[in-house]
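Give me structure tokens for this 423-residue protein.
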Amino acid sequence: MADRLAGKRIVVGVCGGIAAYKVADLVSKLCQAGALVDVTLTERAEQFVSALTFSSLSQRPVYTNLWEPTGEAAARHIELGRAADLLIIAPATANTIARLAHGLADDTLTTIALATTAPLLIAPAMETHMYRHPATQANLLLLAQRGAIIIDPERGRLASGELGEGRLPETPTLLAHIRRTLGRATGDLVGRRVVVTAGGTREPIDPVRYIGNHSSGRMGFALAEEARDRGAETLLIAASVTAPLPQGIEIIRAESALELRDATLAAIADADALVMAAAVADYRVERPASHKIKKGSAEENADGSLTLHLTQNPDILAEVQQVAEARGLTGLTRVGFAAETNDVERNAAAKLRRKGLHLLVANDVSQPDSGFGVSTNRVTLFYADGRVEHLPLAPKSEVARAIWDRLAPLLAQRKAAAGEASR
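Here you go.
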């Protein structure tokens, strides 16, 4: 399955900062995803990383000198600007940011920036005081007002040896911003607001211990990332997870089932879709101890055993259905997940009907290749109209894409139906 970056024309502008070496990895990852990458270096950038490095990675010419004697470079910047799907400048120095803000066009990079109508991403990287200087901040604000997307620098150890803001974000963060920006330009979920839950809930026993499950959050993360890449405004409600949190997505943390319930009910007010991929505990401890329970404590039974009294957690999807009906959220598409260990199809079909879902995604978590904590999944889709579709074993990112391939037209149909009903 082709990456969504495949065939995209991306221009990468590299400025003269120590972080220029990091951009080689970005170019490499973009090319691995199938993007056509053209790199342009400012004069000072060449003092940090050579043009040969980037041409070797991109397998394409690298553009540096606007004033070379043939005049080809002067014409090429117009062509690059017109053909680009996206222009990213990383690292963006204070000097280049100032030139962009004031419309200067005195090298290849700045002339491309003026010639293109493609989205512009700017990733500042510099010493903290330079970044925080009122002139730099004013220039960034002006560029943002004109439509540029500013990728905030990270806090960490800088080349000066000091700690502070100014580090160029790592490649995964830059890639996430590129994917989100391209998705918002052409994706089939542009204008949609999507809520995804992920991970497993933790139900406290005492301040130290909890009841939990093995969910890593990977499937939910893949679904949130795919929605982001298709242009949706995406909110991820993350419970306990072991996988790295995705980038370029709004994230709310909710550890327990009650916290997850409250966050979800608040989030659906303006959502087009809710995808409940979180593994929510069915039970919680009725009265968690306020202190750590120790051996020999009063909480123990006479034989040294410990009895925990459990009470049912709320059925979040059932409450979502009730709230949606009460608030008139007729356009909200509700998707549930069922992690089963036996009678998968029977249990999943019953859950779909019981909770009034539009789609239910079921998998057998007892299988080593499709359970918790692995990178692949094999799922069965149960539709409200009675259809059942089996998807083959695939990486979770591909499973997420397949799910959204089915959901995107369903969202459009339901949105249209809701609009007709309100007339």
